[in-house]
C-alpha cells in the first residue's frame, strides 16, 4: 500500500514536467513561491513564504527547511 505522502509525490510528477516549475501566488498577506521539482516519477513541493512583516519561511513537502536547502535543491540549471 502506498502512503499518502507517496501518492502526493506521484501526483505532482503526473501534473508537472520533469525539472523545476515555479509558481508565485498571494495567500492572505503573504507571497508564496512554490517550486515543484520532478525527477522520474517523484515530485517534491518546496515553498518560500514571505510575510508582509518581513519574515520568510521555507518548506519541503510541508516540513520546515533552511533557505540554503531551498535554494540548493530547487536550483535550475
Provide keyphrases for this structure.
77 residues; alpha+beta; S-adenosyl-L-methionine-dependent methyltransferases; five-stranded antiparallel β-sheet; 5 strands; globular
Task: Tell me about this structure.
The structure is a single chain. The chain is of the alpha+beta class. It has one domain: S-adenosyl-L-methionine-dependent methyltransferases (Single Sheet). It has helices at 4-15, 67-73, and strands at 19-27, 30-39, 42-50, 56-60, 63-65. The protein has a five-stranded antiparallel beta sheet with strand order 1-2-3-4-5. The longest helix is centred in the N-terminal third of the chain and has 12 residues, at 4-15. The chain is globular and about 40 Å long. The mean pLDDT is 90.
Amino acid at each position: 500500500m502506498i502512503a499518502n505522502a507517496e501518492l502526493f509525490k506521484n501526483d505532482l510528477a503526473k501534473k508537472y514536467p520533469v525539472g523545476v516549475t515555479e509558481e508565485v501566488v498571494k495567500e492572505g498577506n503573504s507571497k508564496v513561491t512554490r517550486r515543484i521539482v520532478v525527477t522520474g516519477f517523484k515530485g517534491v513541493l518546496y515553498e518560500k513564504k514571505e510575510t508582509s512583516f518581513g519574515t520568510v519561511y521555507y518548506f519541503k513537502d510541508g516540513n520546515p527547511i533552511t533557505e540554503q536547502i531551498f535554494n540548493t535543491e530547487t536550483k535550475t540549471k
